[in-house]
Amino acid sequence: xxxxxGVFGSARCVLAPNANLMTLDGxxxxxxxxxxxSVVIDPGPxxxxxxxxxxxxxxxxAGSVDAVLLTHHHLDHSEAAREFAxxxxxxxxxxxxxxxxxxxxxxxxxxxxVGEVEIRVVATPGHTADSLSFVVPSQRAVLTGDTVxxxxxxxxxxxxxxxxxxxxxxxxxxxxAQSHEITSxxxxxxxxxxxxxxxxxYYITHRHQRLDQVREALLSLGSQASARQITEHxxxxxxxxxxxxAELSVHAQVAYLRGEARPLHG
Length: 266
Description:
The protein has seven helices and eleven strands. It has 266 residues and is an alpha/beta fold. The strands form two sheets. It has a six-stranded mixed β-sheet. Strand 3 and strand 4 (37-41) form a beta hairpin. The longest helix is centred in the C-terminal third of the chain and has 26 residues, at 196-221. The radius of gyration is 19 Å and the shape is elongated.
């Protein structure tokens, strides 16, 4: 079923028109509003119509945009951040200083508090080194960027991404769901996940199953097998169109199994 965004409690999801195999239906730009204040998360690509729709959603709900936050640096999330923030007169906050506008950054444990809007920052590296997730306590929801998708699973974008960190991040989100601090997931791509815990269970199980498959592939194909050979062996259930992205995860999986950071040859 096609995802088109919508309204979820204090949040609006404005879907960017950049659908493709990697972005699913497009990038979800989130507008969190309470009272006269709002925060925009991941403005997405520099598409004038999309940015106008995001601005309209924020101003209609709250009357102002007080901050732009980034879940991570990938262009489908961050490219329009500076342009959008300058147009509404606010800053851009991100973990990576290169993507900030203004002096304020973001890091684990930070709380973004603007009027009645409260957003808590959780470090969730793994997809990328700078990946963050944002908990909205009033909604018991978490915005996960690309760490957890609304449909399918994500890529660990080696070498920037790292599998050990990603598994730790999934455990961190799982603990929040187990303690009922979050019940739903508002992802960076795909539909809202109303029940966070079973999806996080699946993500964790899936990653360990893939690791087992990579171990088997290394035994079957030999330790000198190329990343592409392992990808074709392990990801035979995935369309070959996606093997390029899957190969990034294979590099991350092999590095994790070998306890090293350098990429696999080929």
